[in-house]
Amino acid sequence: MAFTAVLAGCGSMSRGWLTAIATHPLLAGRVQVVGLVDLDRATAEARAAEFGLAGIPIGTDLDAILTQTGPDLLFDVVVPGARAGVVESGLRHGCHVLSEKPMAASIDEGRAMIAQAAAAGRLHAVVQNRRFVAGVRRIRRLIDSGALGELTGLNCDFFIGAHFGGFREDMDHVLLLDMAIHTLDAARFMAGKRPRAVYCLETNPRGSWYRQGAAANAIFEFEDDVVFNYRGSWCAEGANTSWESAWRITGSKGTLLWDGEDHFEARIVDGDTGFFRDLKPIEVPPPADADQTHGHASVIADFLDAIETGRSPETAGSDNINSLAMVFAAIDSARTGQRVPIAV
Ligand SMILES: NC(=O)c1ccc[n+]([C@@H]2O[C@H](COP(=O)([O-])OP(=O)(O)OC[C@H]3O[C@@H](n4cnc5c(N)ncnc54)[C@H](O)[C@@H]3O)[C@@H](O)[C@H]2O)c1
């Protein structure tokens, strides 16, 4: 039988969720949307019409729609500032809650959500769809295999001139909180290491069309002496990188380059003489599980599988808070000009 779900927040991103639910093979017949909520009723009605959902309860008051429909699931696709209240309502109504990123607007809010989910005995997880892409899964597998030797560093460049309009242009720490959360989460996943501390410089470059924090340079220390360098800007015109960033990952035996799309180059040392050692190419293995490479559809499917089997979802709030902590430590470091330990 399909899970019943209310979706709150019917703006741009909700189209991706509803499309995945309606059309992706991983989700076929698994979710029935029984209610839609948005502070702006017309936005919810337009989304309902687009997906043939005009007959279901639609409203501006989440509590009222949850009371009326009593769903199994709450899908939270609201703006980040409204997330804490929406998650709390969903859990209070006995729903399992899957939220868009970022998990919370502060670490304290994130901790409260984890406690509320535990008290309610319900799952709470976060959409980190950018770890559910083939390239990230392939890199994790390559690193795990040891083919690059001991992992020593991850370096990524994220440079995109993105003109969204809307909430982002007026948001504090817009790059770190709204976008870098994906990249930092992907780095943490690929490395399979715990983040320990960060130094960060956050800037709003000349010509930025964002109010604050459209760029950041951050150096993260991971456990086992692994260093992760993040360089990013959301107001860099002229040469966009991939949304996944462009990566250089180093190990004690060699290097992997990934353009964030389909191009990989991985080489390791082949011989022990010469100023520059001879190198040989190595294969980047395919993803261990192709079902984990479909972005939103894979995250939602993982969440449903977790409910069905009683395990924790990969992006459970209790784990995802470690990625959120990287963001808030970077923000703290930028504010204080100090190296900041990363603690949850
Ligand atoms: N995972 C991704 O790749 C990805 C991509 C884009 C956006 N997002 C995230 O999705 C979320 C929504 O982003 P968006 O681009 O759709 O924004 P948006 O502004 O287009 O839509 C958000 C909607 O939420 C509604 N809303 C706000 N507070 C609400 C509340 N308390 N109850 C009900 N509705 C409320 C707004 O009226 C608006 O219609 C954000 O957290 C954003 O970071 C994720």
Which overall shape is indicated by the principal axes computed on the Cα atoms?
globular
Element order: H for helix, E for strand: EHEHEHEHEHEHEHEEEEEEEHHE
What is the alpha-carbon Rg in Å? Answer: 21 Å
How confident overall, as mean pLDDT?
A: 97
Bound compounds, each kind once, are: nicotinamide-adenine-dinucleotide
| Poorly predicted regions | none
Number of strands: 15
Q: Enumerate the strands of the largest sheet in spatial order, edge to edge or round the barrel.
A: 14-13-12-11-7-10-9-8-15
Query: Structural class of the helices, strands and pairings?
Result: alpha/beta
Measured between the Cα atoms of the first and last residue, the distance is 38 Å
Portion in strands: 15-25%
- Percent helix, as a range, is 25-40%
> Helix tally?
9
